[in-house]
Amino acid sequence: MPRNLDLTALRSFVAVADTGGVTKAAGLLHLTQSAVSMQLKRLEESLDAPLLDRAGRGIALTAQGEQLLSYARRMLVLNDEIYGRLTSNAYEGEVTLGVPHDIIYPVIPQVLRRFAAAYPRMRVQLSSSFTSTLLDEYRRGGIDMILTTEDSVGQDGETLTAIPLVWLGAPGGQIWKERPLRLAYEHRCIFRGFVQRQLDAAGISWEIAVESHSSRTIEATVSADLAVHTMLAGAEPRHFERIAHGGALPDLRDFNVNLYHADTDNPVIRDLAGFIRDGFYTLQAPAMA
Fold first, then answer.
1. Rounded to the nearest 5°, which phi and psi values hold at 283?
2. How much is the CA Rg of the chain, to the nearest whole Å?
3. Would you put residue 141 in left (φ > 0), alpha (ψ -120 to 50) or beta?
4. Where a domain ends, among 30, 55, 87?
5. CB 3.0-4.6 Å disulfide test: which of 106, 130, 225, 264 passes with 188?
6. Lowest-confidence range among 226-235, 237-246, 265-274?
7. Which residue range forms the structural domain that includes residue 172?
8. Which of 61, 87, 113 is the last residue before a domain boundary?
9. Chain centroid to CA 38: how far?
10. Are the CB atoms for 268 and 124 separated by under 8 Å?
11. Total of domains in the chain
12. CB pairs under 8 A, 24+ apart, for 75-79?
């Protein structure tokens, strides 16, 4: 007699594998931690195989779990595609989403994947630019939804999380020790003025070594140890290194990640906003074994 796998349990299993813990997976799925744990237990019992290694501080996949993960992803994609194509025919078209380049990863790819599964006939036009540019375009009605990095939040926005701003330089770099401190920034970077004011308040002389419209130019300059830069923690490229300055540079504070969208009556917009909220919630939730 054929035996059937529980797709709900498989979805919880994949969420735990993707987020690294039961707490984050529960938040992503809008379930309690105990419900997710129970689904994982039932899945292991139905397969008569251990899928998760709980011996360490966190959760890791066993060999059987790694093998199941590949199958589970394919099953869920097919399930979501079938459900989306047969139930979401009324929603076709395009929604525009603007996101600053430094907060695209790791959340936005997950959001796009979930949205595509829920609305296969809809397309997300992703625009990456600076917060000031995105706000201008949003106010003109040229974009449906934006994320911003700001020190406050506008009247029609909501704050999803706050992320610390950090000093960055080349791996093993020494340019941060020189004075005047050499800075590299894009023309419209929202952190630029704040950092300059912090340096002035600390009595540290500085100069703009490079300014550009291109983030790639900034990355090349900083990775060559010709200047320093600041970004939100977790957004830095691999060829950057956080500067362990030991108090030689001023401490920088948190900045808000804010969400703005206008058409709250549109279910497509509401769902996309919900996927974004879920994604940033998983960044905040502590991992749990």
1. -70, -30
2. 22
3. left
4. 87
5. 130
6. 265-274
7. 93-288
8. 87
9. 28
10. no
11. 2
12. 75/5, 75/7, 75/10, 76/7, 76/10, 76/11, 76/14, 77/117, 79/7
Per the prediction, the chain carries an average pLDDT of: 90
- The reply to whether 173 and 257 lie within a common domain is yes
Assess if residue 115 is contained within a domain.
Answer: yes
25: CATH: 1.10.10.10
Q: What pTM was computed for the model?
A: 0.70
Instruction: Please give the Cα distance from 2 to 13 (Å, whole number).
Output: 22
Contact indicator for 215, 186 with CB cutoff of 8 Å: yes
Determine, yes or no, domain membership for 15: yes
Burial of 99 (0-12, 13-18, 19+ CB in 10 A): buried
Interval 85-128: pLDDT, tens: 676 556 788 999 999 998 998 899 989 998 988 888 889 999 99
**Sign, Cα dihedral of 217, 240, 166, 227:** negative
Rounded Cα distance, 154 and 148, in Å: 10
Q: What is the pLDDT of residues 172-202, one digit of tens each?
A: 999 999 999 999 999 889 999 999 999 999 9
Are residues 121 and 212 located together in one domain of the fold?
yes
Provide the pLDDT for residue 230: 97
Angle between helix 267-284 and helix 22-29 axes, rounded to 10 deg: 170
On whether residue 2 sits in a domain, the answer given is: no
Residue 1 covered by a domain: no
